[in-house]
Amino acid sequence: MPVAFRRLLLLLLLGAAVMAGLYYITRPEPVAVRLGAVERGAVRATVANTRAGTVMACRRSRLAPATGGQVARLPVREGGRVKAGDLLMAIWNEDLEAKVRLAESEATAAQARADEACVLGEVSRREAERQSQLAQRRVVSEDVVDRATSEALAKEAGCRAALAAAQVSRDRVKVAEAERERTLLRAPFDGVIAEVNGELGEFITPSPPGIPTPPAVDLIDAGCLYISAPIDEVDAPGIRLGMPVCVTLDAFSGRRCSGQVRRIAPYVLDREKQARSVEVEVELTHPPDREGLMPGYSADVEIVRETREDVLRIPTEALLEGTRVLVYRPGDSRLESRRVEVGLSNWEHTEVRSGLEQGERVVTSVGREGVKDGALAVPEADGGT
Fold first, then answer.
1. pLDDT (tens digit per residue) in 7-41
2. pTM, entire model
3. DSSP code for 12
4. How does DSSP classify residue 368?
5. CB–CB of 172/103 below 8 Å?
6. What CA–CA distance (Å, rounded) separates 192 from 80?
7. Which residues pair with 376 in a beta bridge?
8. Strands (E), 34-79
9. 325 with 318: CB under 8 angstroms?
10. Cα–Cα distance between 343 and 326 in angstroms, integer?
11. Could you report the per-residue pLDDT of 54-95, keeping only the tens digit for each?
C-alpha cells in the first residue's frame, strides 16, 4: 500500500474521530419527561365550584329571647344535645310568674261561680217544670207558673254569663302565659348547641331592627347536612337537578363522597371583587359519607354533566393549546408534536377522538424547559431525573 494512501486513510480516520468527539461533547442532553398513557376508560364532563363550598346544616337557628333582661336560668352548654321544646335560657320573670298564678286563681274562682250559677239555673228549671205540672191539675195559678218560668230563664242566662266569664278568665291565663313565654327560650327542633353567648346574671338585650347581634344560643340540626357551593355563572346553565356529584373535603384527605344536586339558586350572586356565581346545594346520597361531618367544613364539588364509558383518553395535563400533544417515540427517544381531536374533558382525563392510538405515551410535564417538538427525551420511569 503506498505511503500516501496510508497517510490519507489515517487523516480520514483522525478526522472522523474528531468529529465524533465534537458531536459527543456538543450533543444535546436528553430532557427528562413525565409520560401518561393513551388508554381506554371513562371520561366525565364535570363542573367544579369557583370557591370553596361549605358543609351546611339543613336547620340552624340563631336564637335569642323575645325580650331583654337578666339571665336567670341557663341549663345548656356548648356541645350539648337538646330535644325540641327543651328550655335553653330563661330571663328573670318572677313578676310574670306571679301574674300567671293570679290569672289561674281568678280562672278557678270564675269557674266556681259559673258552676254555682248553673246549679241554681238547673234548680230553677226543675221548679218551673213542677209548677207547670201543678197548674195543669189546677193546683196553682198561672201567675205562679209564669214567675217560676221567668226565674228559671233568668238563672239559665246567669249560668251562661258565668260560663262566658270563666272562659275570659281562662283566656287571661293564656295571655299571662304567653307574656311569660317571651322570657323563655326553647329549642325549636332536636339539635346540638353550637354556641352560647351569655352567663347567669348577665343582661341580654334583643337585637335592634336591622342591626345583627350575636345569638344568645346557636342551635344546629347536625343530623341533616348538605353542601353549598358557588358555581360560575358560565357553567350554571348546564346544571340540572338530580345530576350526580362527587364531593371532596379538606378535612378528610382522599375521601370522596357521592351526592346529587338538590337545589339551584334562581338568582346570580354579584359580590364585590368576586366572579358572579350561582349557589348550588348538593345532597349526600350515601349515609356513611355523612359520618364525621360537621357544619362549617370546607368542601369542593364536581357536578357530572355527562359520562362516556370505554373511550380513548389521555391525562388532561398533556394537552397543549387544547388540540396538540407531544408523543414520545420510543424508537428514537424523540418527542413528536401531534394534533388531536378531543371530546369530553375534565381536570383528570380528556377524551381523544382521533390522532392517537391506544398504547402510545404522551408528555404530561409539558411546562419543563426543553420539552418541545423533536427534543431528545428520556422518561422519568426509565431513569430520568
1. 666 667 766 665 655 545 545 678 899 999 999 99
2. 0.60
3. H
4. S
5. yes
6. 6
7. 334
8. 35-37, 39-48, 53-63, 69-73
9. yes
10. 18
11. 999 888 898 888 888 999 999 999 989 999 999 999 999 999
